[in-house]
Amino acid sequence: MTPDSDSERTLELLVASHREFLAFVERRVGDRAIAEEIVQDALVRSLDRVGEIRESAVCWFYRVLRNAIIDRARREAVQRKRLDALANEPSTPDEELQQTVCRCVGKLAETLKPEYGDALQRIDVEGMKVKDYAAEAGISSSNAGVRVFRAREALRKQVARACGTCATHGCVDCTCDHGAATSA
User: Fold this and answer.
1) What's the number of domains the chain is made of?
2) Nearest to 108 by CA among 182, 17, 44, 46
3) Between 171 and which of 31, 49, 52, 102 could a Cys-Cys bridge form, CB atoms 3.0 to 4.6 Å apart?
């Protein structure tokens, strides 16, 4: 028996057990799509190691899957924690900061998706808490946190495009065309 034929048989065994692996993961994560993703990722990562297995390939792969499920749960917990922190972040605007912000930002915010513009208006301009905005918009606090994060990122890109180095180094006295247009 050559090592290549052993690896091929092991791989065939793993592929033949795909349904059992998928059912195992789905029971633990509660979502078919996520389970398929975990099993596929684990199979792809394991392809290079198939020749190194010195035990039952199926038992070994169940251990790989358990570790993948735990890793995913940990990543999701960290992400939830960050989003919850963002959702509970006070968003009262600083007077001095409002006075130094480029006048064109308001105009550029109008070029964003409506839900992004609304999120920025309610949270950053009006000072509404993210969790209160979430309730008003009928979405979860985590979703609202993601929305305002993406809105801020989209606005940052718009400001960088419109204002160039002014946006990078601070815009105390806006002289760009957009700022002049909004002040008139």
Assistant:
1) 2
2) 182
3) 102
